Amino acid sequence: MIVLDTHVWVWWVHGDARLPERQIKLLEENEAHGLGVSVISCWEIAKLVEYKRLILPCPVDEWFDQALAYPGVRLLDLTPRIAVESTQLPDAFHSDPADQLIVATARVYDSALLTADSKILSYPHVKILR
Asked: Which domains does the chain have, with CATH numbers?
């Protein structure tokens, strides 16, 4: 399984041109093994919609129903282990709690993370798909 950062999931569902062809290929190649989406990504998307920083083509709850039904998508719960891991990430990591939880999720599941976030890409303590 690979874990998807929030923006990668949104870009994939929307067919957004910001999702590079190599990442589309990685998504397609990993559908059979599982595409993990943290429940925190759902919260992050709902907040972006609330603040009108993300416009979806339908109500957010309908969007989740559709996006979570994509091939291979597996919703990953926030567990106590992930919560603790997010507060004990090795070395310096930036202070965005959603990113901390997504990185912790990938670490706990021992999975690679698919992201375009430069802060996460430069963090050496999480496996990254490039």
From this structure: 2-121 (3.40.50.1010)
